[in-house]
Write a structure and sequence with these properties.
Radius of gyration: 21 Å
Helix content: 10-25%
Distance between the termini: 39 Å
Shape: globular
Oligomer: single chain
Strand content: 25-35%
Order of helices and strands: EHEEHEEHEHEEHEEEEHEEEEEHEEEH
Structural class: alpha+beta
Largest sheet: 9 strands, mixed
């Protein structure tokens, strides 16, 4: 007998898990995940941080609205962030500070002496920066586990190894079928279908008979390095103003990315040697540290809508299909507010203290119509 649910959510990464947790107290929820464990792809590969400037001004309201939940839940550890540039970059750094300060973000201009104190070994041609002291590391695994546990406790049914292969509209309901192996098939019915499939969001939409929105997977590479001298624990998360590198310390090692956004396809993505080499070359131009070893490397897919803002809301044409996708590299730092807003839109619930400052029209799928 096919089980029936109020809501079926495809994808159990941070997006799907957080939305399920917010919806489960109000509805019977099914969370469907194609991998052996939830969070295998982007969520499990994040070098996550809560940084108010990250994602741009359009994402700031979601990040700020999520801050109290993350702090109060013990998911944040103080870090601080720094965006650096050379002398010729000063006008851009100043605009960066002005842009974010004007919308309430704590960010300030810092000069060479302060930069050298914040980043020991910084080469002399890096002379100006923007400091965001509120930046914090996020315990991604703990946050994801929290949402999964909260969701299950409220009655959510989680199906792993369930790759959705067919979705059909039957009257006022959805019917979906999945396969995990030759002998492992299943299916369910639901009144509402949520597309929280990350890099697979457009293909899930097509399977459900909807038009894709142009959500593109972009590959991001990170390497863990042993460097000499070892990075100090207080080293800030450091970006280049050209968005061509970032690094942060992690348990005595350095996590380094070339800040790449290479178009890819939805898959179990692997890092490319060229991207790691490029990151190391850029680091050598920023600091005088010696790279002793590359200990680990990994890659993940960040998926963006055409305007690089997330997509939350019902499909403009396909009844009962709800988008919760396109969350780029900021999906974890915005998860609390995004999930609360998503549940309110999905279930017709009123805004609350976390979401009252958010404008859902900014993120609605119909903006692409």
């Amino acid at each position: 007998m096919t089980e029936s649910f109020d809501i079926a959510i495809i994808g159990a990464g941070m997006a799907g898990a957080s939305l399920a947790a917010e919806c489960a107290p109000h509805a019977r929820v099914l969370l469907v995940e194609g991998e052996d464990t939830p969070g295998y792809h982007t969520t499990g590969r994040s070098a996550a941080f809560w940084e108010e400037t990250y994602g741009g001004p359009g994402v700031v309201p979601l990040t700020v609205a999520s801050g109290a939940f993350l702090r109060d839940g013990g998911f944040l550890s103080p870090r601080g962030a720094l965006t650096i540039g050379r002398a010729e970059d000063r006008p851009r750094i100043e605009r960066f500070v002005e842009t974010f300060a004007s919308i309430g973000v704590e960010v300030r201009l810092v000069e060479r002496a302060m930069l050298g104190a914040l980043v020991p070994g910084l080469r002399s041609d890096w002379t100006v920066g923007a400091q965001a002291p509120g930046c914090a590391d996020i315990d991604v695994a703990a946050l994801h586990a929290h949402y999964l546990a909260q969701s299950r406790q409220a009655g959510t049914v989680v199906r792993v190894r369930a790759r959705v292969e067919r979705i059909e509209r039957e009257g006022a309901q959805w019917r979906l079928w999945w396969q995990g192996g030759p002998q492992d098939r299943g299916g369910a019915r639901a009144a509402l279908l949520v597309n929280a499939a990350g890099a697979w969001a457009d293909s899930v939409a097509v399977t459900a008979g909807a038009m894709p929105l142009g959500i593109v997977p972009l590959r991001r590479t990170v390497a863990q390095l042993r460097v000499d001298p070892a990075p100090p624990d207080h080293l800030p998360l450091t970006f280049g103003i050209d968005q061509d590198f970032y690094f942060k310390p992690q348990a005595g090692r350095l996590w380094l990315s070339p800040h790449d956004e290479t178009p890819d396809v939805a898959r179990d993505v692997a890092p490319e040697e060229l991207a790691v080499a490029l990151a190391i070359d850029r680091l050598a131009r920023v600091t005088d540290w010696t790279v002793a070893a590359v200990e680990r490397r990994w890659a993940g897919l960040r998926s963006f809508a055409p305007d690089r803002l997330p997509v939350y809301g019902f499909d403009a044409e396909r009844a009962g299909l709800f988008w919760f996708a396109g969350q780029g590299g900021f999906g974890i730092q915005t998860a609390p507010a995004a999930a609360r807003l998503g549940a309110q839109l999905l279930l017709g619930l009123p805004a609350d203290a976390m979401t009252e400052s958010l404008d859902p029209r900014r993120y609605a799928p119909c903006r692409f119509g």
